[in-house]
Specification:
With about 575 residues, the protein is an alpha/beta fold. Helix content is about 35%, strand content about 15%. The protein has two domains: about 220 residues, 3-Layer(aba) Sandwich (Rossmann fold); about 260 residues, Alpha-Beta Horseshoe (pyruvate-formate lyase- activating enzyme), CATH 3.80.30. It contains 20 helices and 19 strands. It is globular and about 70 Å long.
């Protein structure tokens, strides 16, 4: 590592509050790797939770690795600098275990560079016993890990709190990594790609998936039953992240709303909550006049103890923050608390403009409810409003985009009507993301809209909203969304694309190099009984339930939220 990079490493470590650096001794050494930059990684609660899980064990130590910042990459390439750990500047190859945190599919493209800088072979088949065991966890590991299956020795299928300790304990008793992998592959929660064979038919679809050497098929996801036994929160704070001055804490996990586009909502079932006492105990010592407590969950305003927790936080003279509120459960008391805590912007997620499309995605929201929520925020004195919408949803037509424009116009007029008498007028930001069909959701059978179709929709939105004062339009990169779709829906053959994508090729160019058809993965509608790449895993939600929900979507019929123990989807009854 060059002197400048070493100084930067030391500065990042010195700026952190919390965390520990252990001496190596005879401990099992774990390299926790986030395939993105430090700034993005240390804002991730899951990453911090795993770091703490390993560090609290007396027989283990954990050190962190991150992708270099963009401006530092030339120095790595030109001077041959090696990727080293943040804590003690050790090489990745010195560790017993390399644990990859896979939170976003687009981070897969960073893996070839990361392995190159670490001087490790990218393919698992090219790494012998002299190399660390490479495992991967995070939501991508139990959603669809197949595009990176050839790089990984072991996937953790489920939530870290019930799996990480078990892996580390078994490492001590295993004679060799191969023995450990065979032991784990026979149990739920562990996916060893090398013990599974995938064959393809003449049309390119998967013909069969088979397991060998006692590996289970499918591999069932495992999760924490009692969230009060977990402590997913900000263990380390640093000024070098998006949440520099915020103490984040998870208050709930999973969501029973059943929005049909939402992978998080399905693969983190069943919904679970922490008690008020647990949240306050985990915040003890962190709340003071300068603290902002960020409540984290799939649907924070659905959290049944939110009023008790926010009241207690405010009583300690700390502030409360949430990323967004549910339109149909937010209350004036919640909004007033957030306003008093200094939150100037709040977000709502109508997702679609027309009632038919909102019913199709099971949003269970009427226009009247949306406008009522907007009025509540405006009357409470919230200055700015953010609105989340999806485009390219299954069944979307021109009339749905017209409805979206009309809804935003109506919201904007209401917002200004309420705010003008208050003597100030804030901004409305319309955040638009292309819909990406995700594995293990009712829309897993859908194809994605083409780049041309999405671009046409964005042009309409820019034209329709561009003339509205106090309204800003933000649109996610269409190319980034298409890449996410490719990696979300791909099979093992997609792994060959990643080095080319990492080198700068676009999707079509990379597919040409590897003799693959991008439309096969992106825009193709899949048959009811087609074997999906991710069927090697079992989220607990039955395929029959997902198909039923897909049929309900096509008929624009809604389904009520789940209640834990209802057994209708298979998670609680499995």
């Amino acid at each position: 590592m060059t002197r400048r990079l070493e100084q930067k490493r030391r500065a990042l470590l010195a700026a952190e509050r919390g965390g520990t650096v252990k001496s190596w001794g005879g401990r099992v050494s774990v390299a926790l790797v986030y395939p993105n930059t430090y700034h993005n990684a240390m804002s991730n609660l899951g990453f911090q939770a795993v770091y703490q899980l390993v560090q609290q064990r007396d027989d283990c130590l954990c050190e962190r690795f991150f992708l270099p910042d963009k401006e530092d990459l030339p120095e790595y390439h030109q001077r041959g600098a090696r990727l080293l750990s943040l804590e003690s500047a050790r090489a990745l190859g010195d560790f017993d275990v390399v644990a990859l945190a896979l939170s976003f599919e687009n981070d897969y493209v960073n893996l070839p560079l990361l392995f190159e800088l670490a001087r490790l072979p990218l393919l698992a088949s090219e790494r012998g016993s002299n190399y660390p065991l490479v495992l991967a966890g995070g939501i991508c590991a139990f959603l669809n890990p197949e595009p990176v299956a050839e790089f990984i020795d072991l996937f953790i299928v489920g939530e870290a709190e019930v799996l990480v300790d078990e892996v580390l304990e078994r490492m001590a008793g295993a004679a060799a990594p191969a023995d450990l992998l065979r032991q784990l592959a026979s149990k739920p929660g562990y996916y060893v790609p090398s013990l599974y064979d995938v064959s393809y038919g003449a049309d390119g679809t998967i013909a069969a998936i088979s397991a060998k050497d006692g590996a289970v098929l499918p591999v069932r996801r495992r999760w924490v039953d009692d969230l009060n036994t977990t402590s997913c929160k900000s263990w380390i704070t640093t000024p070098n992240t998006a949440f520099a001055n915020m103490q984040l804490i998870e208050v709930s996990r999973g969501c029973g709303r059943g929005c049909r586009f939402c992978a998080t909502g399905f693969v983190y079932l069943p919904p679970r909550e922490k008690s008020t006492a647990t949240v306050l105990e985990q915040l003890r010592g962190s709340m003071c006049a300068k603290t902002v407590v960020g409540l984290v969950g799939a649907a924070v305003s659905d959290y049944s103890h939110i009023d008790a927790v926010t009241s207690a936080v405010v009583a300690h003279q700390a502030a409360v923050s949430v990323a967004s509120l549910r339109i149909d459960t937010m209350t004036s008391a919640q909004v007033e608390t957030l306003r008093r805590c200094g939150q100037k912007t709040l977000a709502l997620a109508p997702e679609a403009g027309s009632q038919r499309l909102r019913d199709s995605i099971n949003k269970n929201l009427s226009e009247a409810q949306i406008l009522s929520a907007v009025r509540l925020l405006a009357e409470a004195g919230i200055l700015n409003l953010k609105l989340y919408f999806l485009i390219g949803l299954p069944g979307e037509g021109e009339e749905d985009i017209t409805a979206l424009l009309e809804l935003v116009t109506t919201i904007r007029n209401l917002w200004l009507e309420v705010q003008r008498p208050q003597g100030r007028v804030g901004q409305i930001t319309v955040s638009v993301n292309p819909f990406v069909p995700k594995a293990m959701t009712p829309f897993q059978w859908c194809g994605m809209m083409t780049h041309k179709q999405l671009k046409h929709t964005v042009t309409r939105l820019r034209k329709g909203l561009g003339r509205l004062a106090n309204v800003n339009l933000q649109v996610e990169s269409l190319r980034s969304a298409l890449l996410q779709a490719l990696l979300s829906r791909g099979d093992r053959r997609v792994a060959a694309l990643l080095p080319h994508l990492a080198a700068g090729d676009n999707i079509k160019a990379a597919c040409r190099r590897c003799n693959l058809d991008s439309d096969f993965y992106l825009t193709r509608q899949r048959d009811k009984d087609e074997i999906m790449p991710w069927q090697v895993l079992d989220s607990g939600v039955s395929r029959q339930w997902l198909w039923r929900e897909y049929q309900q979507a096509q008929a624009a019929m809604t389904t009520g939220p789940c209640q834990r123990g209802c057994q209708r989807c298979g998670v609680c009854g499995g």
